[in-house]
Amino acid sequence: CSRPQKVCLCPFLPIHPLKVSTCLYIIQHPAEESRVLRTVPLLAACLPPEKCKILVGRRFSEERYPELATVCRNPNTIILYPGADATNLEEVAVRPSSPSVMIIIDGTWSQAKDIFYKNSLFRLPKQVQLKSNISSQYVIRTQPTNTCLSTLECAAVALTIMEKNKSIQETILRPLQALCSFQLQHGAQIHHSKEHLLKNGLYDKPMPKNKRKLRRMELLVNNVKI
């Protein structure tokens, strides 16, 4: 896990990489690569190297990333990104020819949105989303809403659905739970979602002057999906 011995997460990782048929391509925003408490390394430690490939960057052209372009054009590839055009993953997973490759964008919501819309390659695969209403266990980092999940949690839920194996989710989430527990024991605070803070009058930062950002906060308070 590359962490100090005192907070080593290796005992919480699977002894052998999980056997999965689905290959994940994690498209990571450069800002995530430098974060100390990022979850993608834990995800990669749970899976075989050939089943979890990480590409770091903001722009992905067909010329610079020919392998990725081939993957995006493959009809058996899907991209996990919520939206009006996205199909629930549960519906896709039950079809006879289940997807064999899934692309997940790793970054803040604004970073992920920027990567998705400014790279035409990522609009070639079928767009899917998770229907799950589970709350994030990544409590040491603030999420926009109560049901926003970290990249590791998204991958855990998605792989469980695609592989039809509930133990996958439990195995992948175990090191995340240990990470949060260690951090809380060493002085970290639980981070409630922005939605929770706004609804309970606990949001102590200045409200944004930008009308678009202010409107997004109003939607969070009023339980409108954004």
Automatic annotation (TrEMBL):
One of its GO terms (molecular function) is tRNA-uridine aminocarboxypropyltransferase activity. The keyword Transport does not apply. Its EC number is 2.5.1.25. GO terms for biological process: tRNA processing. Residues 1-188 form the DTW domain. Keywords: S-adenosyl-L-methionine, Transferase, tRNA processing. SMART domains: DTW (SM01144). Pfam families: DTW. It catalyses: a uridine in tRNA + S-adenosyl-L-methionine = a 3-[(3S)-3-amino-3-carboxypropyl]uridine in tRNA + S-methyl-5'-thioadenosine + H(+). Belongs to the TDD superfamily. DTWD2 family. This is tRNA-uridine aminocarboxypropyltransferase. It comes from Columbina picui (Picui ground-dove).
